[in-house]
Design brief:
Subcellular location: Cell membrane
CATH topology of one domain: MetI-like fold
GO cellular component, one term: plasma membrane
CATH superfamily of one domain: MetI-like
Distance between the termini: 33 Å
Strand content: under 5%
Number of strands: 0
CATH architecture of one domain: Orthogonal Bundle
Shape: flat
Membrane topology: Multi-pass membrane protein
Number of helices: 13
Keywords: Cell membrane, Membrane, Transmembrane, Transmembrane helix, Transport
Pfam families: BPD_transp_1
Order of helices and strands: HHHHHHHHHHHHH
Structural class: mainly alpha
Length: 280
């Protein structure tokens, strides 16, 4: 295992530390080792493009995580009723997750394009005043991206939650039926609280996915119109490869690292609490 450990330590930890080092320099096209302390981070937070990307990240992250959890859990509960054709429905709901974000983005770009998407289709039926231009409207474009992300991500959460629901002790259901407790109340008060570790795990996975979001935005809008759908990952890549500003890009990457650590913190806390409980 030592060679593998050495490679992982060099590639992952080493590159992360080197990136953080460059974020404190004035590197432009090529790395430079003239240190400027926190000036790159100061430039980062006075940049309107960065602040817009952070605002979009908050909106995208909150609605995406909550939406995936709600939709995925509802789909899992529906399939948990032993419906006919369950295997077919499970495959249908999980299929979007098998697609790449680029394919998803291009498909939804076509669907939401006012010229030949849903808006054009409805207008061709005779409703000429119908408007669904979220993709080209700077006020609503981030919500168009959220719709595409929910379509792809909720099926994966459904699969995880369904597996957890199937592991619930059948005696719980027998006891609630004897007591006359409605099924919805059993799910809300008994089953879902018992699935707290899985829900936390899903939140961490979705949170990390939000921080890394890049290809879906590029495929759908390329950050437009203007910078209305800009996200931090795109900000970093653009400044690294197009604007030739390595120092500022690495400062943005450093803030993304902090975001990933914050997203993973609940899982670490939960693991520590469970370990402490097991030792006691």
């Amino acid at each position: 295992m030592l060679p593998l450990f050495g490679i992982a330590l060099t590639v992952f930890v080493g590159c992360v530390l080197y990136s953080l080092l460059l974020s404190f320099t004035d590197s432009k096209l090529l790395p430079s080792y003239v240190f400027v302390e926190f000036k790159q981070y100061a430039r980062l937070f006075i940049s309107s493009r960065w602040t817009t990307s952070l605002q979009n990240l908050i909106i995208f992250g909150a609605l995406y995580i909550v939406g995936c959890l709600v939709l995925g859990t509802l789909l899992a509960i529906a399939l948990d009723q032993k419906v006919r054709g369950e295997n077919w429905f499970r495959t249908l709901f999980l299929y979007p997750h098998a697609l790449s974000y680029v394919v998803t983005g291009l498909a939804w770009q076509w669907l939401l394009n006012p010229a030949f998407g849903i808006q054009a289709l409805v207008r061709d039926t005779g409703w000429e005043s119908f408007t669904f231009d979220w993709l080209v409207n700077s006020e609503t474009v981030i919500f168009a991206i959220i719709i595409a992300a929910l379509w792809q991500g909720s099926g994966f959460i459904m699969a995880l939650m369904l597996a957890s629901l199937r592991s619930v002790d059948p005696e719980i259901w027998r006891a609630t039926r004897i007591d006359g407790v409605p099924a919805w109340r059993t799910y809300w008060s008994v089953v879902l609280p018992s699935l707290a570790p899985m829900i936390t795990f899903c939140i961490v996975l979705l949170g990390v996915s939000v921080v890394k979001s890049y290809d879906l935005v590029v495929a759908m809008t390329n950050g437009g119109p203007g910078i209305a759908s800009e996200l931090p990952a795109k900000f970093v890549v653009d400044h690294l490869f197009e604007r030739n500003n390595i120092g500022l890009a690495m400062a943005g990457a450093g803030m993304l690292l902090v975001s990933v650590l914050c997203a993973a913190a609940p899982l670490w806390v939960l693991a520590a609490i469970r370990k402490r409980g097991a030792n006691q």
